[in-house]
């Protein structure tokens, strides 16, 4: 059994699997560090049409996801989770902003995340009572919660031991110490009339470290003029 588990409640599991099976997350799953399951909400409907949405009471444009299939799907996932420390998260613009500290908290305090991906014109308000918290990526609206969920998954998974290879791999990343990443350069030394800073070619590791610290902008500062 993997040390960490993530279940994604979604209407589009195939699109999620294609992305989550690649790169760092895919390798972590193959190593057994993490288990990721994409669970089809539609499988838990209680009508012959496998309908997961309906028109809103009071009128209005669009369709709203029903609470029943969401609850039944979540009940099924929780029954399989056993004694894991589970956290149920809805992705919504109305939630609290997601950042690096939130990613650390989710990795540290839980070993099982359930991410609920809404669709259509939202979900029945009563379904929000099923969640432990609501998370937002920002003040904008996406077609569905799948994209937002993948951002949260990536930010959390890369912090798990063994995922990035070296245990210190995540420590040097942007925001890890409240600073953004320092400028990086690779070959060739001259490109389009621009030169790599001489200190990086000096071989003086102490000078390189000092230069990099000086070049790191604070995370809360904008680089725009």
Describe this structure in words.
By secondary structure, this protein is of the alpha/beta class. The chain contains six helices and nine strands. The strands form three sheets. A five-stranded parallel β-sheet has the order 2-1-6-5-7, sandwiched between helices. A two-stranded antiparallel ribbon has the order 3-4. Helix 4 links the parallel strand 5 (86-97) and strand 6. Helix 4 crosses helix 5 (146-157). The N and C termini lie far apart (50 Å). The model is unreliable at 166-171 and 218-225 (pLDDT under 50).
Give the class from helix and strand content and strand pairing: alpha/beta
Spatially, the strands of the biggest sheet line up as: 2-1-6-5-7
Number of helices: 6
Radius of gyration, taken over Cα atoms and rounded to an integer in Å: 22 Å
How much helix, percentage-wise, in residues?
25-40%
The N- and C-terminal alpha carbons lie at a distance of 50 Å
Topology as a string of helices (H) and strands (E): EHHEEEHEHEEHEEH
Shape: elongated
Oligomeric nature of the chains: single chain
What does the average pLDDT come to?
Answer: 88
Poorly predicted regions are 166-171, 218-225
Task: Report on the biggest sheet.
Answer: 5 strands, parallel
| Strand content range | 15-25%
Tally of extended strands? 9
